[in-house]
Amino acid sequence: MKVMKRLTASLCALLFSTAVFAGEATGQQEEDTTDITYSVQYNMNQPGDQYINIALMVTFPMNFGGDFPLYREGQLNTGGAGMLGYHRFITSWLAWGIDINFGYNPTIGSNIFTYVPVMFNLTVQPAFKRFEFPITLGVGAAMESYLSRTYFPGLTLKGDAGVFYRATPSWSFGISYDFMYMPQWYEDPQYNDYGNFSSIVLAARYHF
User: Fold this and answer.
1) In 3D, which of 56, 55, 62, 57 has the Cα closest to residue 77?
2) Quick check: 118 and 100 in contact, CB under 8 A?
3) Once rounded to an integer, what is the mean pLDDT over residues 127-154?
4) In the chain, what is the straight-line distance between the N-terminal and C-terminal CA atoms, in Å?
């Protein structure tokens, strides 16, 4: 009987020790779990994000002076343009894209100079809180028309800098200033000329 009592007491002690150890391990595991913290960082733009750019511009002819009537000083008046573009982010701050412009400038003779440049762009875009500061450089070709004369393809270079406010995750609105260079080169160099235009741009961007 004494042997049975001792054996029973030993088993009870062993079970009690096992239960206490398991409880301590579970508590330690729960304590370790509660110490885990998660950090979530939100950026307005991530690689692969895209946006559609819609813009209206007031366009100013800058300096002209060659023999070609289109670029003779004083012949072109302030005009306007519209732009539609698609852009995709490579990194959180760098994007590539394509823009199509539809622009015109009236002349003092009530004629119209029109141009349709297609631009391939790279945009560097620093951001601060909800403000974005895109700086864009583009190169492309334009179809230029004046009276019965059409010039194509015309080299087009453009630089643009602006500030945008991200009103919602899907929409941002901003203003920018751009400079566009459109030379015209002919077989007879005396007809060559160089058009310089600047624009104030009001734009909306749809992000997706």
Assistant:
1) 62
2) yes
3) 94
4) 82
Cα 117 from Cα 185, distance rounded (Å): 16
Six-digit token pair at 50?
Answer: 């895209």
Tens of pLDDT, residues 66-92: 444 444 555 788 899 999 999 999 999
Nearest Cα neighbor of 208 from 72, 44, 90, 65 is 44
Contact 90, 47 (CB under 8 A): yes
List, in order, residues 6 or more apart from 43 with CB less than 8 Å away: 92
- pTM to 2 decimal places: 0.73
Q: In angstroms, rounded to a whole number, what is the distance separating the alpha carbons of residues 194 and 161? A: 22
DSSP letter at 44 equals S
Which amino acid is located at 6 in the chain? R
- Phi, psi at residue 145, to the nearest 5°? -130, 140
